[in-house]
Amino acid sequence: MELRTVLVVGTGLIGTSTALALRRHGVRVLLADRDAGAVRLARELGAGEEWTPEAPPEEGVDLAVIAVPPAFVASELLELQRHDAARCYTDVASVKAEPIHRARQLGCDLASYVASHPLAGRERSGPGAAREDLFLGRPWALCPTEEAGPEARAAVLRLVELCGANPVEVDAAEHDRAVAVVSHAPHVTASAVAARLADTTDVALGLAGQGVRDVTRIAGSDPGLWLGILSGNAAPVAEVLEAVARDLNEAAGALRALAGGDGAAMQDITQLLKRGVVGHDRIPGKHGGPASAYAVVQVVIGDRPGQLARLFQVCDEVGVNVEDVRLEHAPGLPLGIAELSVQPDAAVSLVEALRDRGWQLP
Ligand SMILES: NC(=O)C1=CN([C@@H]2O[C@H](COP(=O)(O)OP(=O)(O)OC[C@H]3O[C@@H](n4cnc5c(N)ncnc54)[C@H](O)[C@@H]3O)[C@@H](O)[C@H]2O)C=CC1
Ligand SMILES: O=C(O)C(=O)Cc1ccc(O)cc1
């Protein structure tokens, strides 16, 4: 099914990112938000034109994408359907069972609605944080109810395709249990670790490395939005957090025993660390495929303009594809380390090429 005109309601991070991706494919995008400033900024970023409900487009709207906090999805759907705003509807909320249940309670038309959720985002909110490539290669869950009609299914599938994401059809309750493990409980855990830093000493913060930055990145997200996400998926998230808390309690108990001279407690800690490695290795890699063991080439780079561009130029010259890149800054020094993830069989030639050209590899 072709999407000619799409209405995006909620022009924050996800709504504006969706709109930008659609604009790139020439789709006409209409923008709405209860915050006029958010629509204005999204429009200035090239995400589309302002929606004027009194003057709907002649061709009609093929799909309305509801990109507002989970608690407002069902009421927004009802309101849009009452005004016959579009032929088909979807939402992008991070929880699925509760908004669908509420939509059913409110008497929304479920034939023209397929709930969905892109598994991609950022720790920043609002249209200013939007990126047209946010969804590239990412999973995008579709949770059609049994009432969902073929036209709505096709429209939402096309949306996912145009955003460059991978559609994954899953039952709403199963979706919510899954994201409790892979997104919602990790978020709370990140917040708990980050909360330890709120009143720690400047000396400790001065010693912070990449590990703590990685583990706490998502803790910088909007608390209001996350309160809505967590309360919409409360029981499944609580269950995962209880399991995490059991592991943490056992680790603390074992470390107390170790501190008291009980060397046997090392076993318990090793077991948890090993289970952690197993879990980490199961996270799928780029494009949702199995995690690939890339080789990591570390290069010292000066904190000057153009250094990364020069580094990529060398990769290009020797025909090495950079699968991922990470920058680690040396606190207080005008240099850092770039970590280039490459296919293992490309690492040796890249290392040689970099050394030949005078780059410093630690
Ligand atoms: N932040 C993330 O990384 C991800 C968020 N999501 C989901 O996407 C949805 C939007 O989240 P973000 O874009 O991150 O939030 P955001 O805070 O960047 O944008 C939400 C926008 O919705 C508007 N809004 C709120 N209620 C409204 C209403 N009743 N009618 C019209 N506009 C309304 C707000 O003014 C705001 O501009 C949420 O349901 C969230 O669970 C999904 C995937 C990732
Ligand atoms: O920032 C990240 O890496 C995320 O994973 C963000 C995210 C937040 C909420 C979602 O429902 C999906 C993804």
What does this structure look like?
The protein is of the alpha/beta class. Helix content is about 45%, strand content about 15%. A 5-stranded parallel β-sheet has the order 3-2-1-4-5, with helices on both faces. Strands 6-7-8 form a 3-stranded mixed β-sheet, covered by helices on one side. Strands 9-11-10 form a 3-stranded antiparallel β-sheet. The chain starts with a strand and ends in a 6-residue tail after the last helix. About 30% of the residues are buried. The mean pLDDT is about 95. Pathway: Amino-acid biosynthesis; L-tyrosine biosynthesis; (4-hydroxyphenyl)pyruvate from prephenate (NAD(+) route): step 1/1. Belongs to the prephenate/arogenate dehydrogenase family. Pfam families: PDH_C, PDH_N.
